[in-house]
Predict the 3D structure of the following.
Amino acid sequence: MNAYSYTDYISKIGILPLSSLQDEDYYKRYENFPDAKPRKIFKISKYKNSDENLVWLAYVSGANPDPDFEDAYLDHVFIIMLINDKLKIVKEYIYSDYPDAVFTWKSQGGLDGIRLEQLENPIEIERYIEPCDKFDGLENYRDNI
């Protein structure tokens, strides 16, 4: 994910890019570890923010979803922007009821200057697959947000 994330975002969520390789024993511990499974992409909404920059919201499943479980949950949103002519993840939200027992999109870190609540009236929405109807996933998928 580091290659697709903006450096300022990475440092704010605790992902620190390695400047050198780990020792050989570190990699041997994980040589038979199963490959990570790709997230499921449910929809992508395209916006222009207040600065007239293009912004995309990617509504996705959690990390490493079970490939045998077709009804994946829509519980993450990545805010994506063009940074130096490359698409970069600049902020992450999860759909959670912690700590207030009310399900809403909650920021998990990223750039301070952009918030989900600031984006209104998408200029384009592409829907790919429907999520399961749990934790308001189907409602979030169908909303024109």
